Amino acid sequence: MSNTKNTQESQDSQESRNSRNTSKTNDNQSAKSRPSPMEVLRQARGQLAELTGMEAESVSSFEQTEEGWALEVEVLELERVPDTMSLMASYQVELDPDGQLTGYRRVRRYERGRSDARRGGR
């Protein structure tokens, strides 16, 4: 009887260690499966280009949010001569934690050669 009890305790102890190791492994795998910030940037640019047909020229803002990621991407909408007269646009892009695009919208259009108007009466 004592031998059976020791065997059961040994099995319980092993299962407990396995459970802890599995939990650590799952945590490590989920951390490894999350895309890096650079991967998120590349995915966002590629997905936006695929949806709009316009290539992203730059990313002017990038941050991690509770829902995933938020970016502002600058896009050439209409090429003109001279280049300073080309029409640009800023798109606000939202992605889930895995880097998949969940939404976008154009927030501003401007000529490439024009700077933002000063704010606050300066």
Q: Can you describe this structure?
A:
With 122 residues, the protein is α+β, with helices and mostly antiparallel strands. The protein contains two helices and four strands; from the N terminus they run ααββββ. The protein has a four-stranded antiparallel β-sheet. The longest helix is centred in the first third of the chain and has 32 residues, at 2-33.
What share of the residues lie within helices?
Answer: 25-40%
Radius of gyration: 25 Å
Structural class: alpha+beta
Please, how many helices? 2
Proportion of residues in extended strands? 25-35%
The biggest beta sheet is recorded as: 4 strands, antiparallel
Integer average pLDDT: 82
Measure the end-to-end span.
88 Å
Order of helices and strands: HHEEEE
- According to DSSP, the number of beta strands is 4
- Shape type: rod-shaped
Strand order of the largest sheet: 1-2-3-4
